[in-house]
Write a structure and sequence with these properties.
The structure is a homodimer. With about 700 residues, chain A is an alpha/beta fold. The first copy, chain A, folds into five domains: about 130 residues, NAD(P)-binding Rossmann-like Domain (Rossmann fold, 3-Layer(aba) Sandwich), CATH 3.40.50; about 140 residues, Rossmann fold; about 160 residues, Rossmann fold (3-Layer(aba) Sandwich), CATH 3.40.50; about 80 residues, 2-Layer Sandwich (Dna Ligase, domain 1); about 110 residues, 2-Layer Sandwich (D-amino Acid Aminotransferase, Chain A, domain 1). In chain A, about 40% of the residues lie in helices and about 20% in strands. A seven-stranded mixed β-sheet of chain A has the order 9-8-11-10-12-13-14, with helices on both faces. In chain A, strands 21, 26, 27, 28, 29, 30 and 31 form a seven-stranded antiparallel β-sheet that branches. In chain A, strands 15, 16, 17, 18, 19 and 20 form a six-stranded mixed β-sheet that branches. The longest helix of chain A is centred in the middle third of the chain and has 18 residues. Chain A is flat and about 100 Å long. Chains A and B meet through α6, α12 and α17 of A and α6, α12 and α17 of B.
């Protein structure tokens, strides 16, 4: 059901309206009246005849008309009745401000569910409970106790923290930043971030969507809604609780490393949501993205009237992974002719300490025309001859809207008239060069996502049936850890090359298998109970003849029985010695919110010590898989260095795509590590040397 | 000579004073008069009889008295004469505002030198040229055109960028932040950052020293002055141009990696200067350090009236490498008794959205008494019942000065009265939780430096004489690249264990040497012209008998002559095969400013691909050497992982201390790489497997 009546009601009831200033029931009613909501306002309170000059009713039945939106501010134990009453009066949307539900424990959750069930049965949308309400500047609807109606503008905000709603509203007021809508989503019992992303995506007043989230209810719906919204307008998200979660316990490397905040990062990357790391960045990004056009690339030109801050900005551009633009030769020549001799026409363009407004304009006009410049940062310091306000007006007048321009007028007193002119002209202004650059980085990131190539996920031909059989048999028997033998079976069915080998259950069988596949061979214990095989003496390499293989069999069995008493041992796996090549790890860990997360890293110490890995949500395209490789610090190792040949990058990418397909096809696979995955030079096929998987147990239904 | 007369003159002459507002000669005179400097002010201008109500003189001789401080604002070509005139009138200090010197080229530099020579001969200190002058709020001396006299306070600023002086002054005005002194150091022809650090260290008005630098004149003097100052009060430095410099060309790994900004970072670390990475951080740190006591450790307690921002702050604390404090059990019990039931008494302590000032005070008092808390962050969001101003006053009243307290009152309008109260009470207040945490991190860093153990540099017994001989012989012959043979000779003299080996000049000699030291052996070409030996076929390993050694000799010579035609080949080095162990690299690169910079890293890919290395200025103590190991990402590799034994950490540290001593003893050594340095388990002695050094050429004098 649409949220239209939530944002555009023609009548609003306040159930629990109060005459006492400071009480929420008073403040909400007062906000509606004071801020000039043009529709009908119906206060409901059995103990009052009029409130704030409006006729007051003991209940909605007494009023008798139809209500579009009801705001419930009654004590907790009366909330359900108030919701019932609102539904009865034809409400299309209800805001439950009242707290004391899910956040207080199971009993509260139960009460909350009753309200939601009622609403959902009757097709009514519910915001909250335990929220501050909402604001829509378009129709001057302030159904909140978050503060006064802000100036109208293009930024819409939703926040899971009511306190942050008020802080953001207060900040917007201080900066004269216009808002479209502000929504406190509270417990998200019905209306969640997903609904708001979908609604605001199509809201013509909203140019930028800003969200503060502490958790996400349904990962896949979030990704879908955020991606749809980001296709239409920038979505900026601040997600807190990033480090506290810590790493979860998991059997695979991938599972361990995928803990904490990684999945959220992967989800934002997939969906095009620009992630703000700090509260400052949230507003800094929103300001730039709501006021300025998107850059076409990442080359930044700095225009300054002082060398020092120009250098600081250039430092920040490089650190942010953007490029200090190199001016086109024609631009440099033109600037050289029009600026004083002492001016620098490199990057930064230094228009000198005595620059008048015209000199800034000269530089900005040239930069706007220069095809080698994607974005412009203007820095002004207040020097003896500087005229901040006139400069701001002149700069704003020179903009042609072709490229984003942001400004830093440094200082806090003399420059303020200039900063006010910038704000009035819609030119984003930041306190320091570093923050201005950070805002540009947010723009560049979003622009790059918008320009991404179409996502074409390859479907490989595989033997899905075979995998289905293996998995369902294992699930039925409850042996949910898959070791090397079954794991390789599954990967083989999905087109992976695995080393030739077989399971032996006696020394004689081991010798026969070794003779069949050829010497030298490696031998590995196969047991769900032995995790670190090599530490336990469960791996022997380079066995050169049948006798050595037979002896090794006896020895390994002896060792393991002694070191891991009672271990269930399936046998010993005999296989070809690994081919030479670079050892990498590719894996998957299933996130409860966002599904299969693929991981790539170089093997051994790179994973174990340096944790130099990258993640992406499945399914991945080839481009995305290659981007995963490139985003590790050790990527140079793959490309080869100092005369050594590189390895086959696309072959690794193909491996990632295949496990992407496998784990998308089989939600039963919870974790998967191919470690090592041995890759060779370009044109060679990588080999799975070892693999480990774990499966979900059958649910009660499946049993 | 002291800077006393610069900051505390009883008479000031303005040579080049002007009647025209907007001219620097006017603005400086006007500043002196307007801001109420209490001493004698003498305007000098041949074309005026009075200026701003003061009698004006054609020259200082005409005035006839003694001048303490002269400010020179005349055109460039008259500056030297003005300086002469000032010296003649007994000036103890001269500020040359006039530009057009060193910054314009060699001719300007020459003019600048003449002024400085004159001053130095006569014992007069010179500030500038090409600067904005200086301000001292203590005696209301505003001898600058940087802006109006700021409010008096404890922060003193020096800046190499005049524009940043004005921006910082303007920012301080906007934030009502008090300053002690502001100095624009311009071209630093005489008075430099070193003089100012020394002076401000002992200036009783200055509580915190803030500096903006683009370069540093004399590295060792800077370190000495900064360390002396930091021992007495915090020194905060913003150094720009950090990334632009790029990597310099160098023959050693250490040399390549030591490029760019590394030496500055090492210098600040050594001297206790807190480095600000951004313009925001510079003021954020200064505010906290000038207003609050130092923390005793890094455990931060967060007190908040809202969950979301509390979580954001906790995230930031962890990301900054500090600790989210765990409240003492008694504190938690006490808080539980005194706060509402719904309040959280963990960390963050959540005093709830309806918190009154008293509730904040309760939490702060408990935190101040809690031995498990080192620093306190108070977060306030403007909610319906929040009283920002009263809360600020109550918080300020509750502080007992035992621990640093910083605040974030989030928002921009309703909270402003509260923020003003905080500022008035000397409680640092930041726009976001993240910036408040960053300020705390600056405090923790400085406090840790102050609490560092005494620096005791070990002197090892070495054969210095032997090294002297090798180096002077090589310098005389001009063969400045030292390879493995001579390098090991030198390291042996400084107590390193080197692999047994000798240089062979024929196949027969090679075989004899190999037989003497025992098989298997390794063979390496020795030639200053062959840099990447193994790529050129100049390394062979694991040769098992004399015949193999002889053959290898012929083959290697053949290959190298073909691949590096014309290479000067000293012979082939025959040595024991390397012992097993972990390969690390230790090295030194001599920075032109700061002298020998020591480097540590794990060998191979860790250095070449991941650039995972750390630096420290020599001489290092054992503690500092161990800290170098710990600050690499791969430190876990040294400690051992998953059942493997770790290596001897102190043995690596000892190696670093020995090259520290070697390169401090011999400034002729420009670069040194011990790569690999093979380290074994605890108690074993590491072995130098290869080494490369380069020496400085003899200077003309030395020849």
């Amino acid at each position: 059901m649409s949220l239209d009546l939530l944002f555009h009601p023609s009548s609003v009831a306040v159930i629990g309206a109060s005459r006492t200033p400071g009480k929420v029931g008073h403040d909400i009613l007062a906000g509606l009246v004071r801020d000039g909501f043009a529709g009908t306002i119906v206060p409901v309170n059995p103990a009052a005849e009029t409130l704030l000059g409006l006729p007051c009713y003991p209940n909605l039945a007494a009023w008798g008309g139809k209500i579009d939106l009801a705001v419930v501010v009654v004590p907790n134990e009366l909330a359900l009745a108030a919701v019932e009453e609102s539904v009865g009066a034809g409400a299309g949307a209800i805001i439950v401000i009242t707290a004391g539900f899910r956040e207080t424990g199971p009993e509260g959750l139960n009460r909350e569910k009753k309200m939601v069930d009622l609403c959902q049965r009757r097709g009514v949308r519910l915001l909250g409970p335990n929220c501050l309400g909402l604001i829509n500047t378009q129709n001057r609807l302030n159904a909140s106790f978050a503060g006064a109606l802000p100036e109208p503008g293009g930024i819409s905000i939703f926040s899971q923290s009511g306190a942050l709603c008020t802080a953001m509203l207060d900040l917007a007021a201080g900066r004269h930043l216009g808002l479209a809508k502000l929504v406190s989503i509270g417990n998200k019992a019905d209306i969640s971030e997903v609904d708001l992303l979908s609604y605001l995506a199509h809201d013509p007043q909203t140019r930028v969507i800003v969200g503060y989230l502490e958790d996400i209810a349904t990962g896949n719906n979030f990704i879908k809604a955020a991606e749809e919204a980001a296709t239409l307008k920038p979505v900026i998200i601040l997600k807190s609780g990033t480090t506290a979660a810590g790493l979860k316990a998991a059997a695979s490397h991938t599972g361990v490393l995928a803990g904490g905040d990684t999945a959220y990062g992967a989800a934002f990357k997939r969906s095009g949501g620009v992630r703000a790391d700090t509260f400052d960045a949230l507003f800094d990004y929103a300001t730039a993205l709501s006021m300025q056009p998107l850059p076409k690339g990442n080359r930044v030109l700095i225009i300054t009237n002082a060398g020092g801050p120009g250098t600081m900005a250039a430092d920040a551009v490089e650190k942010a992974g953007m490029v200090v633009a190199e001016l086109d030769r024609n631009t440099a020549t033109a600037l050289r002719a029009r600026l004083p001799k002492a001016a620098s026409v490199g990057n930064p363009v230094d228009v000198l300490g005595d620059a008048d407004p015209a000199r800034f304009v000269t530089a900005i006009e040239a930069a706007q025309d220069d095809p080698a410049v994607d974005a412009i940062l203007v820095i002004l310091t207040p020097q003896a001859m500087t005229r901040p306000a006139e400069t701001a007006i002149a700069i704003a007048g020179a903009l042609n809207g072709s490229k984003p321009v942001v400004a830093t007028f440094m200082g806090g007193h003399d420059v303020m008239p200039g900063r006010q002119e910038l704000a009035a002209a819609g030119l984003p202004d930041y306190e320091s060069p570093e923050r201005a650059v950070s805002a540009l980085r947010g723009m560049v990131e979003y622009a790059a996502w918008k320009q991404r190539p179409p996502r074409l996920v390859t479907r490989f031909r595989v033997n899905r049936r075979r995998v289905e059989r293996i998995i369902s048999r294992r699930q039925r028997t409850g042996v949910l850890q898959l070791g090397e033998v079954k794991g390789k079976d599954i990967l083989g069915a999905y087109g992976f090359k695995v080393q030739d080998g077989a399971l032996a259950n006696s020394a004689e069988e081991a010798m026969e298998i070794a003779e069949r596949i050829g010497f030298p061979v490696a031998m590995k214990i196969v047991s769900p109970d032995v995790i670190h095989k090599s530490d336990m003496g469960g791996v022997m390499l380079n066995l050169a003849n049948a006798e050595a293989v037979g002896d090794a069999y006896e020895l390994m069995m002896l060792k393991i029985r002694k070191r891991v008493p009672g271990a269930f041992i399936e046998g010993i796996y005999i296989e070809q010695m690994a081919q030479k090549g670079l050892e990498v790890i590719i894996g998957m860990s299933r996130d409860p919110q966002f599904g299969p997360m693929l991981m790539f890293g170089l093997g051994g110490i790179f994973v174990e010590v340096l944790k130099d890995v990258s993640f992406h949500l499945a399914p991945v395209t080839e481009d995305e898989a290659i981007a995963m490789l490139k985003s590790t610090r050790s990527y140079d190792m793959l490309e080869g260095r100092r005369g050594q040949k590189g390895v086959d990058i696309t072959a690794i990418a193909s491996g990632l795509q295949r496990i992407s397909q496998l784990t998308t096809d089989f939600p039963q696979i919870l974790e998967l590590d191919i470690n090592p995955f041995i890759v060779g030079e370009s044109g060679s096929e990588p080999v799975v040397a070892d693999v480990r998987m774990s499966l979900a147990p059958l649910t009660e239904e499946e049993k």
